[in-house]
Inverse folding.
């Protein structure tokens, strides 16, 4: 289980680096296998380039090689992605996560050429990220498999299309050296039973111990115990995303006393009704633990 780290903010809107350090240590101590830094969950569209650099440096220094770090470097400009990888300091970064280009809606051939250019510009391992609900474009199984077969440093895909048939097609036909990671917490368990190797999780920000345990149990074939944990979080999966991501998980982390419930516009905190419902579930989870 990898965790897509949130970016904590102070009340004045500045990055709360102290809270970020606490969150990173919490993740490592609670069994998270790797960290995904500066992904969508980190509110990267609202971070300055200097903030992104500092967040990366702070996390790399804090982790100190204890777990792998995946860095989000997506853009809808291919050259921008290449420049970010080639010109920025990638010390301590184990792989890069690159989302399908958003807004300009490239064709499947455009997607292939985008990732081809990036793969040829770096030796860093690349994880593709297909999330059509955010980008407006779905990368088909055919395009994903074409990239997986042709470029050795394209090692995995974070699949968040929600299309189980498409994901299963990739898992069934992929080369042995290419892996599928689930991009949706709610279907991580069933996708692992089909052959995915894990998940890049949002709920893991708040519950790394429990969700990583579910992942490991499922990977070990202990589906019964994994299913129990999956069902424990079913209601929470919906609440975490009903008002957008990362509003839900930030509300949960604030209830746990780990961060302030602060986002940067245009994102806003969860509605009070959602917050109260999450509070009820958190209290129930505490009572059962």
């Amino acid at each position: 289980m990898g965790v897509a780290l949130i970016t904590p903010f102070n009340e004045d809107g500045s990055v709360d680096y102290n809270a970020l350090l606490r969150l990173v240590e919490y993740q490592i101590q609670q069994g998270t296998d790797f960290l995904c830094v500066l992904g969508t969950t980190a509110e990267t569209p609202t971070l300055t380039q200097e903030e992104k650099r500092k967040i990366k440096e702070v996390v790399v220094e804090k982790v100190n090689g204890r777990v792998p770090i995946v860095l989000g470097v997506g853009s809808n400009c291919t050259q921008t992605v290449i420049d970010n990888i080639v010109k920025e300091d990638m010390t301590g970064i184990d792989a890069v996560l690159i989302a399908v280009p958003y807004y300009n809606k490239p064709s499947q051939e455009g997607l292939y050429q985008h990732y081809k250019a990036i793969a040829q510009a770096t030796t860093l391992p690349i994880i593709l990220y297909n999330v059509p609900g955010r980008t407006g474009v779905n990368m088909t199984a055919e395009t994903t498999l074409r990239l997986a077969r042709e470029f050795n440093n394209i090692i995995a895909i974070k699949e968040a299309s929600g299309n189980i048939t498409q994901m299963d097609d990739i898992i069934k036909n992929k080369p042995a050296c290419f892996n599928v990671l689930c991009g949706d917490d709610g279907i991580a368990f069933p996708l692992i039973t089909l052959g995915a190797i894990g998940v890049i999780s949002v709920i893991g920000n708040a519950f790394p111990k429990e969700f990583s345990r579910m992942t490991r149990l499922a990977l070990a074939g202990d589906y019964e115990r994994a299913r129990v944990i999956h069902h424990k979080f079913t209601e929470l999966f919906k609440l975490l995303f009903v008002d957008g991501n990362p509003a839900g998980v930030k509300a949960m982390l604030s209830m746990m006393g780990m961060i302030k419930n602060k986002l940067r516009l245009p994102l806003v905190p969860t509605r009070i009704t959602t917050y109260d419902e999450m509070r009820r579930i958190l209290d129930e989870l505490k009572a059962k633990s």
Observations:
- The chain has 13 helices and eight strands.
- The longest strand covers residues 154-159.
- The chain has a mean pLDDT of 96.
- Residues 272-288 form the longest helix (17 residues).
